[in-house]
Amino acid sequence: MKQKRKNQSKAGTLPIYLILIFTSLFSLFPFYWMFVMATQPSAAYNSIPPTLLPGGKLVENFQKVLDTIPFFQAMWNTVLLCTVVTAAVLLISSLAGFAFAKFQFPGKNFLFILILLTMVIPPQLGLIPQYYLVSQLGWLDTLMGAGILFLLNPLGIFLMRQYISESVPDELMEAAKLDGCSNFRIYWSIVLPIIKPAFATLGIIVFTLVWGEFLWQFTVLRDPSSYTLQVALASLNNAFRVDFGMLLSGVFWATVPLIIIFLIFNKWFISSITEGSVK
What we know:
The chain has helices at 2-38, 58-68, 71-102, 108-117, 127-136, 143-147, 154-167, 170-178, 183-194, 196-212, 215-220, 229-234, 244-278. It is an all-alpha fold. One of its GO terms (biological process) is transmembrane transport.
């Protein structure tokens, strides 16, 4: 009887696994096709039937990228920008989330709602005044100007508030205060170790967001020495002729660091998701 139920259970889960496998392959196909196009000449982009097997021009196409734009300088600028912004967002969001989750102060709920409302405002609406402020501060063509808008992250504050509310017991904080710990000491010694999974999740989100940002970086960065990858790759798009092999080769190598970052923090990222479901 038990064996029969086990067989029925396996038969019931088989379609689910097949759907998951198909969905995974469908999601990964754009990355595979990008790699294939990065190894092909430009003419293969419009070939019918489409080319689905890698070619032998990966190195040649990437060499064209290096000859056209300062790729490694742009990658260094992007990595530096994303790292600094991510670290700043994690610090600011966790401190703000800690305050909103565990402290009482006048206007707390109103301020929190106000922060969340900024998420529904399209960033294009503030482009002109933000550009004016950055230009007046003298931050054009600087990584400071490219990253300043991302330091206050409403989503990060919301995630940290929710995670800290559910994961940090009030009794633990009260015990720490009885031992003479200051609020910052409680944050540093108790809250931070508990919210590491949330840190990994928010870190991946912010790092990916800043890495893929184009409009604001394209607006404030005009000097090629200050280009990030997105702005540098955009300069490969010639108005009269586009070398798709070269362009997608640059996009492919610009995507590799993101994959590495995800693989490094994948364990904590999944941990934060499963922990919420277990709770």
